[in-house]
């Protein structure tokens, strides 16, 4: 229990500071985009490159990552089966499986397992948007009765793939892995600034989560939002855990995947719903609700899977 508290308390406190700062308008809603750019374009690439520079491809455990995406596929297809194959169901299915791996996952995994845990999380992050956004784009563009968007479905999918690859996440991961194969150490004059930038990622990202929550209103969407939040933070990790145990998986890499599945809905789902003009209010509310339901899931997962268990 002490390990769970020590891991969750800094996350909750930093998020709470962000909420207060947002409510008091010390950080205005207009500044969230600038904070987002700082996190995604500066701090994240520094941390990703520096961490992956010390990882060999053979150290990446593929089975836990495959288990994570297998659970995603089951939930996504299940959502389409229950709610019908339409644009709203496709966005809701994406919300039920798309984790906030950056702003919450990276600082949380870093606190619990350090760089060793991050080395397991980053390969998942590098594939996360590519796999899930492409899947959702296919479902949206090919949904029966969908009005044309002006793009051929194949071109829309190719654009989704290109956007997911040409992104400040996969590129520094691949660059870091490539650098690691040279056997050269990162020069200290470069390594130290990268280290300092990487250390700033967690606090700044969590502050941004809090500011975003301070400006989110649930309104009449809370019922649908709660369903999506429970699918994401309860059903998703339980499926990852169940599939992994059935396959005989264990160890740190598997624990990181289960914890990643516990995380709340990522902001990319909101951007996706805005782009297609589908269930925007419900997704916005679900992102907020899942942030709170994830606290319970994360606490349970850490109690079962944290180091020393």
Automatic annotation (TrEMBL):
GO CC term (a single one): plasma membrane
Gene3D superfamilies: 1.20.1530.20
Topology in membrane: Multi-pass membrane protein
Transmembrane segments: 6-26, 38-55, 61-82, 94-114, 120-143, 164-184, 196-214, 226-247, 253-271, 283-306
Example GO biological process: transmembrane transport
Keywords: Cell membrane, Membrane, Transmembrane, Transmembrane helix, Transport
Keyword Transport listed: yes
Domain of life: Bacteria
Subcellular location: Cell membrane
InterPro entries: Mem_transp_PIN-like, Na+/solute_symporter_sf
PANTHER family: AUXIN EFFLUX CARRIER FAMILY PROTEIN (PTHR36838), SLR1864 PROTEIN (PTHR36838:SF1)
Family: Belongs to the auxin efflux carrier (TC 2.A.69) family.
Stated name of the protein: AEC family transporter
């Amino acid at each position: 229990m002490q390990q769970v508290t020590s891991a969750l308390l800094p996350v909750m406190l930093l998020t709470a500071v962000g909420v207060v700062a947002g409510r008091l308008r010390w950080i205005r809603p207009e500044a969230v985009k600038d904070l987002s750019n700082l996190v995604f374009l500066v701090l994240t690439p520094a941390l990703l490159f520096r961490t992956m520079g010390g990882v060999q491809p053979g150290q990446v455990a593929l089975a836990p990552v495959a288990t994570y995406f297998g659970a995603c596929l089951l939930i996504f297809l299940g959502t389409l089966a229950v709610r019908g194959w339409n644009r709203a169901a496709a966005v809701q299915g994406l919300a039920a499986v798309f984790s906030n791996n950056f702003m919450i996952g990276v600082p949380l995994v870093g606190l619990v397992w350090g760089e060793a845990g991050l080395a397991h999380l980053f390969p998942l992050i590098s594939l996360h948007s590519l796999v899930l956004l492409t899947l959702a784009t296919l479902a949206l563009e090919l949904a029966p009765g969908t009005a044309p968007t002006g793009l051929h479905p194949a071109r829309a999918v190719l654009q989704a793939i290109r956007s997911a690859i040409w992104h400040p996440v996969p590129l520094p991961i691949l660059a870091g892995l490539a650098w690691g194969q040279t056997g050269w150490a990162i020069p200290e004059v470069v390594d130290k600034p990268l280290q300092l930038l990487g250390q700033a990622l967690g606090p700044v990202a969590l502050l941004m989560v809090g500011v975003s929550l301070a400006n989110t209103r649930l309104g009449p969407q809370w019922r649908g939002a709660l369903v999506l939040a429970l699918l994401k933070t309860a059903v998703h990790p339980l499926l990852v855990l169940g599939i992994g145990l059935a396959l005989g998986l264990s160890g740190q890499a598997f624990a990181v995947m289960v914890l990643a599945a516990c995380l709340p809905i990522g902001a990319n789902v909101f951007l996706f719903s805005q782009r297609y003009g589908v269930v925007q209010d419900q997704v916005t509310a679900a992102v907020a609700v899942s942030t709170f339901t994830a606290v319970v899931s994360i606490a349970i997962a850490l109690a079962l899977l944290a180091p020393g268990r």
